[in-house]
Amino acid sequence: MDGLSGARPLVPVAPERLQEAARRKLDAPAFAYLAGGAGAERTMRANLEAFADVKLMPRRLCGSASRDLSVELFGHRYPAPVLLAPLGVLELAHEGADVAVGRAAAGMGVPFIFSSQASEPMEAVAAAMGDAPRWFQLYWGTDEEVTRSFVRRAEECGAQAIVLTLDTTLLGWRPRDLDLGNLPFLRGQGLAQYLTDPVFRSRLAAVGGPAASPRPSPALLKTAASLAAHGRKFGLSLAQMRAGAAHFTASYTRPDLQWEDLSRLRGWTDLPILLKGILHPDDAREAVRRGMDGVIVSNHGGRQIDGEVGSLSMLPRVVEAAGDLPVLLDSGVRTGSDVAKALALGARAVLLGRPYAYGLAVAGEAGVREVLRNVVAEFDLTLGLLGAHSAGELGAEHLA
């Protein structure tokens, strides 16, 4: 209806045009980090192809003038089966970063999953969101006291669940970043949770940073300037920032994480724990045996293994293996009809990732809000056109 007055959207509606608008807005390293995938990016394509391969089947003369889009997860009812996925280094997209995304999510009432690799500390984002729902995504590092401190802080920030990411115990082979020699964490970007953590900060005095070059190159000068700027933001010296970047890169993941470790995490918190990165049905069964509260079918948006199976392709088998355990999905979700397909295949909800980052790049907080509104609106229309009265009604009968 805004077209009557000549108003046009803040961000392109079509996913491909949205990505292109973000590419034009961002510098090459920022776009490479946000948009890139592993290897030849076959997994990224597999995620999109998996959605394209699923066909919806509408029913006629059984619809409703209004639909119930809401979903209940872990005792909380959310207005739509869409959550904002944890994305790291959002400062690459926009200076508002995680705070802008949190405000947009709060305006819609959907949960924002705070990333361990955030550009703003969880406390600042939680304050900006008020009472709106938020979860916390956890990377389990080799400095276990820091990991435990993150969980404690998430509880204090009002997080309603802990999402443990399992598919990034090693950083994937990402040619777009490699070609540009770009790892933002070395410049202090995406380290807000660490640089504000009391346990992590206590390590900085004991960890030596890289020695300064007597004849620094322009690249090293740029890195030093970025570290110094982030140091000023978080009250740390340049030497401490160098030490912080070094300690982070040495400790942020644990390649030898095992199922047995989950019992310690269970002992640290009473919050629901979801395992993110599940693709194999046997891993879903093990999650049930280990007392986890949910799983997220995900291949990290195609950023970890080149040639990996598309997330949606594995969803039905994981749902079957998980039994009564709630199953969520991410990787490849671009549209409201994608949301409908995932729910028809058994997902309880989906996580939206890159599209909202592109909206953030194009128009800040308002861009995130518009992308989220577009996805939810298309899902509502799709639901109605399929002849379903609620999100919970979607099932095999709505698939060809």
TrEMBL record:
UniProt entry keywords in alphabetical sequence: Oxidoreductase
Domain of life: Bacteria
Signal peptide: none
Presence of keyword Oxidoreductase: yes
Cofactor(s) listed: FMN
Pfam families given in the database record: FMN_dh (PF01070)
Domain (FMN hydroxy acid dehydrogenase): residue spans on this chain: 7-400
Family: Belongs to the FMN-dependent alpha-hydroxy acid dehydrogenase family.
Protein name in the entry: L-lactate 2-monooxygenase
